[in-house]
Amino acid sequence: MKDLFKLFFAFFRIGLFTIGGGYAMLPLMEKEAVDKNHWVTKEEMLDIYTMSQCTPGVIAVNTATFIGRKEKGVIGAAFATLGVITPSLIIITLIATLFKNYYENPYVIKALVGVRCAVAALILTSTYRLVIKAVKSPIQIGILIGAFITVTFLGSSPVMVIIVAGLLGLFLFDARPKEVKQND
Prior knowledge:
Blueprint: H1 2-17, H2 22-36, H3 42-54, H4 59-102, H5 106-134, H6 138-152, H7 158-172, H8 178-182
Helix pairs in contact: 1-2, 1-4, 2-4, 2-5, 3-4, 6-7
């Protein structure tokens, strides 16, 4: 039970102290799950990010769920998920009750402009770390650039780009362990 509460409170802290959504939470999740608690390796974390992005729902919730499940099964998934969403539920409830009175306040507006800049920096940091970890070969760089251009400038559906990238990966990359490749 102690381990379940550890999962809950680790993700509660992440949810409480991260503003800006799932991508802004990723660096904190990595520190907590990989560096501090050793629930997953860096490679597993990258796979979890990938699956969390491809799975319907919020990336932070999906990531917490996958880590919780890996650590303590279905009950661990529930505790990690509840941990990451509880702060948001509390904060959104408070904001909803107070927002009506303060949403036109110039100080609130100015504060939110500053917060948006910090959130953009957190998302950019997460993106940089993901690219450094995930993209290693010229083919992967080509897929990355092609996907970026296709979504950003051509307005293609991100879902279609993910499907095409997955199919490219299926046909272009060898998933066998290194020791099997060496014996060929």
